[in-house]
Amino acid sequence: MRKITFGGIIIGLALLSLISCSTKPKAVDRDTLLVTIGQDDLKREIGIVELRNNFFVYEGEDPDTAMMRMEQVLDNLIEMHLLALGAEEAGYLNDSTLMISLKKSRENSILGELYWQVVINTTKVDSMEIVKMWEDMAEEIRCKHILVKDSLLADSLYQVLNAAWTDSADENLFDQIASEYSEDQGTKDRGGDLDYFSKGRMVKTFEEAAFALEDGALSSPVKSDFGWHIIYRMATRENQTRRPLEEMYPHLLSMKEQEMRREVADNFIDSLIEAAQVEIQEPALLVLYKRLSENSGGPYGPAPLTFSEEESSMIFVTYSDTSITLGELKQRVDDREWTLPMFMPDTNAFRDACSRIMMTDLLMDAAEDLNIGDLPVVKRNTFAQIDRSLSWRLTEDSIKAKVVVEEEEIAQYYQKNLPEFTLPERRRARLIEHNSKDSLENIVRPQLTAGDTVKFDTLAKQYSIHFSSRSGGKLGMFPEGRYLAFDSVIFSLPVNEISDVFAVDSGHFAIVMVEEIAPESILPYEDVRARIEGNLINAKVDSLKQTVIQELQSEYPQTRVENFDEIIQILISGE
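RE: above sequence
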């Protein structure tokens, strides 16, 4: 069973996008301000986090080039926030949909900062741990496993296998049981075979049990997040794919950081659930389970939840001295505050999923205890998210709505730019490529005759080493320049002619045949009218948008912090 990535509530809420700028501490504090746009109540701030989330320095990139890209990114961010300020001044934030988006953006920003402070900022990797990881990868083992959800079934299957596991492994019996009982759909049809793997590839409990076995040994049932495993260790070999430590260090460091963060985050969440004393009430759970099973989805997804008056008053969950009824649950789902888990046949798994519905509330309470909502970085990240919607709305409603493109403009553009709509000559061809010139000249070429596509098809499938061999050497219809290695020959042949054997740049040899020639042609006006209209609209929108931005720049002045250049140099240097 492969190790899954951290899929807890925090990741599920897409919080990592808010802190994806770094996997290690930076010299610049996360609260660092770079640019202020506007003033008083109508203003925006661009901080180091927002810039990092939109700008990355490539390895080996020239500092001057990186600086030019950074300035372009910063200009784009400033323009977006200016348009958003214009939208806010016009009252767009009074829109109920955007108000919900603003609330959600703030929530995500708070939870993202909570994740940073509680998880990322507290997990530091010792370099010796990376060395140990690398050393542990020196060997890899091959295992089979049987996965079941029920512990009693796992014990029963183990007893059957163990009784047959006398002097040697009974692989046939293991394969039969895996095929019949294992719930790992990816391996059950091959006897549960997981192939070879090294340490760090499987979930922790499974890995520890597998590497503790001797070759040929069978494990008793092992519990993991997926269920109960019975493991059969088949063989051990040297890891042939392990690269030198210096090459693998960055990858191993990232793996270790993610492992540590998963553990810290899971422990933090478990502590919140325990402290809140979350309890799902079985009668209400069964009502919800039944309702979702009846409404698992149609062509347009599930219909809204409906409960009777009596059902609506049933307590669904209690936590932190709070009780939530099914009616209140429905309201929170309708308001998009909570998200119901997908219907799942396993009621225990469904119960576990429901116990995490209110996790956002618990995390928000924890963030409030830490005063995270008052941090400047949270406000900046909030508007970094909502301003994309605001700037788009202003562009659509106040700029694009004013743009009109007349039919005469479209027709004039077509006539003045005919080369843009001219298709070059194209050819449909077939190819046989081989690494032996003698084979093509003495075996293949003598069997080919002009226009005989059936024979060409057969020989291409038999001899060609080109990817097109499966389709009988078909290259399709294409313009000159698509296949540079063969173009000069293909575009010199008449229809149905077979070329002589010729050399190609790869050191191989080839034969081609042209099946069809499509001469240069101009696309009809009707076929390109919509494209022209869209391009003209976009050009006018861009022009009007720049005019609006210039006006907003005057209304909302932009100010860089005094040490802006110093901060940017640190960012570009990657410190």
